[in-house]
Structures are given as structure tokens and as C-alpha cells.
């Protein structure tokens, strides 16, 4: 998936539009539950070096919450990294360059949505 596909998918699947709360980073999109306003996703553009990539060019990533027991396993997969600017035990960053299959991105997003939903 790429940035546009993520935006479209979240709008269609969860009926959620992003908000852009960061004045210094207007391209960073936050996805929140409608009632609780809890975050279930964060779409960012970050320098590749911040993820440990050899390039410093900006890349799109999607941060999602995940089960802390799965975090180490997920991070061992190509395209999944320690969460950029989030709790690294509970969140991961997914590189949106096609490395991670669309089906897996959707599954991880769904898990994040359910982990953060209203109780």
C-alpha cells in the first residue's frame, strides 16, 4: 500500500477522515476513533535514516498499535520497524513502499483499530 491507498482504505473501511494536528509537520495524518478520539493510526513522512535505512530520503510509514508480545516478531519482518516517535513496545512503523503486503497492512491496521477502540 502507499499513502493514498491507506487514506482511501481507512476512509472506506472505518469511515474516518484524518486530522492533521501538527503545525510543523502538516503531512502527518492522525486517525482517531470517532467517540473516544483515541489514535489507531498515524501516517508519517520521515527520513529513512530514522528507521535505520541507509537512505535519508523521506519515506511514508504507518504507525499502528499492536500486541506487545507480537512486536518483536513483527519487527523481524522486512518493512516493519520500531515505531517512529511512539511507544516502541506497543507500536510499530510499517514502511509504505510495497515491502509489506497490502493484506498484512490491512490486518495490522484492523488489529490496531480493535486494540484502541472504545470499551
From TrEMBL:
GO molecular function: DNA binding
Signal peptide range: none
Keywords linked to the UniProt accession: DNA-binding
Pfam entry (one): YjbR
PANTHER family: CYTOPLASMIC PROTEIN, CYTOPLASMIC PROTEIN-RELATED
Listed name of the protein: Predicted DNA-binding protein, MmcQ/YjbR family
